[in-house]
Amino acid sequence: MELIEGAPLGEHFSSLKEKQHHFIEERLWKIFIQLCLALRYLHKEKRIVHRDLTPNNIMLGDKDKVTVTDFGLAKQKQENSKLTSVVGTILYSCPEVLKSEPYGEKADVWAAGCILYQMATLNPPFYSTNMLSLATKIVQAVYEPVPEGTYSEKVTDTISSLCSLRCLTPDAEARPDIVEVSSMISDVMMKYLDNLSTSQLALEKKLERERKRTQRYFMEANRNAVTCHQELALLSHDTFEKASLSSSSSGGTSLKSELSESADLPPEGFQAPCGKDEDRACDEILSEETFNLENIDKDMYSELDEELDISDNSSSSSSSPVKESTFSILKRSFSASGGERQSQTRDFTGGIGSRPRPALLPLDLLLKVPPPMLRAHVKELEAELVTGWQSHSLPAVILRNLRDHGSTY
What we know:
Layout (H helix, E strand, L loop, with lengths): L6 E2 H11 L5 H22 L1 E2 L8 E3 L5 E3 L6 E2 L18 H4 L7 H16 L9 H10 L12 H15 L10 H7 L1 H79 L10 H39 L6 H29 L14 H5 L3 H6 L1 H12 L6 H11 L3
Antiparallel strand pairs: 1-3, 2-5, 3-4
Helix pairs in contact: 2-4, 2-7, 4-6, 9-10, 10-13
Keywords: ATP-binding, Coiled coil, Kinase, Nucleotide-binding, Transferase
Pfam families: Pkinase (PF00069)
Organism: Lynx canadensis
């Protein structure tokens, strides 16, 4: 269902009557011509009879645009057929409806004549408080003529002839259809259609100007957008080149300054470098540490081998000096490894992510010691091992292996 904007024609009648105003001639004909065109479409195109055409069912929109509404009682009839239902508003009903006679499209022509009369006088042509008297007036078509002086003589005569001789004729056969009614006001209708044609041409010209203006603005906007994109591309390219050149030059300068500063640093103020320099420095320090530990292990192995050879050639009774010398060597090796380990820990202090590397345990060397000798001094060895490795969480498996080796024999 469509929402119709505007107000009913009946409200306009009430408003003008309160203000004691009248419809101007141009507005009166404009509304009536549109009403005739609407009825021609219904009667000739769709064969529809409205049957309740009143001022309250005619909406006036913007610029008096006429819209016919309320088709609840409308009926579509076959060609040359008649309707017999008594429906509609009695003030605008034709005589044949009141007499219960068959009727057709000319019932709407009678209602259109009543509306034209009311637009000219602001009062319905037939009115009475008594329904019987009202029906009598309608059947006999008795109404007061259009007063003179309100409109021009030509308009008054046209309205009078339309109402009395045409639209409000009691005889349905003598009453004209909507096409004949329109032909009686053909000069007014042609003038109205000419105004419509002029307005349409003006609107088309305005629309064409707006279309050309919009097209011109659109093309100009496209050109500006393309130009802007090109300038932005050139600007970004130049900015990228300048940034790359400046970054490369600044990068080379900063690298040279960092290398010169790192070369001037003394060994006491050593700081852990970052990235690849850090890895390289750590590898050098660890390689030196490994080399020192290997030398210590070689010295320990050689000394212990000499002692073991001496102990094999001597008797078991004279093994006490060998025992003391062997374990003194082990103690010295553990103390030396512990001292070296502490110095390495001090050297690595302050390094980022650095961790001291523990010295290698001479486990193989300990396993070569005869079990009786190891059994006698196993507690002392445990104390030395734990004291030297307490900061590195000495695995318990090493001590267990030493105890098992000492208790074999």
